[in-house]
Amino acid sequence: MEKKLIQFDEVSYNRDIIAINRIADKVNENMNQLVDDNEVTIDFIKNLLCNSDFIKTVKYREQLEKFRRNFNLQNVPLDYSKHEFIFTMANSSIQYLFSLKNKVGAVSYENEYFFNEGLLYLENGKLCISPDYKDKIRERHSYYTKTEKQNQVLEKVKIIETALNEIKDLTGGRIFSINKLIYPYFGRNEFVFNRQIFDYLTKE
Fold first, then answer.
1. What is the DSSP letter of 57?
2. Around Cβ 134, how many Cβ atoms within 10 Å?
3. In angstroms, rounded to a whole number, what is the distance separating the alpha carbons of residues 38 and 59?
4. Quick one: DSSP state of residue 119?
């Protein structure tokens, strides 16, 4: 069976093209900050941008443990009343990550495919965009038929779509009336022609 294109979602395509370029640009602008205190991998960047709890849980706990070691408190249960300075230092040490996340801007869970499908990758300490990223994003926002029945229905729908747009051009673009030219006649379980709307659209 030949797959046929049902729809290309250009709005979502353009949104994702802008998003992936923004992510790469902003992360690379701040890469020096990241490498100072993190093992920067593609999974790290994905978690940083896509996981809302990553900074305040994973990275915060890492910093708590780091400062415990620095002050030889590995075997001492941390108590905020006694070790407030450690909690404060750990909290302060992750603020730059929140700042970076804000600079990058909102990254939807729907954009995780940038990382999962290799559209973003690390090379020589830089976040790179796959050369074929536009094709992959275009394909992701293209919707195709899956059955022969869908092919047959799509062919008829396209005829209707073309005809309605031609009627719109012939009658001055009154789309709110054109969509009433054909209406469902439930008693006969079929669609019928609306003569009153036809007369209205075609009056001189």
1. I
2. 15
3. 9
4. S
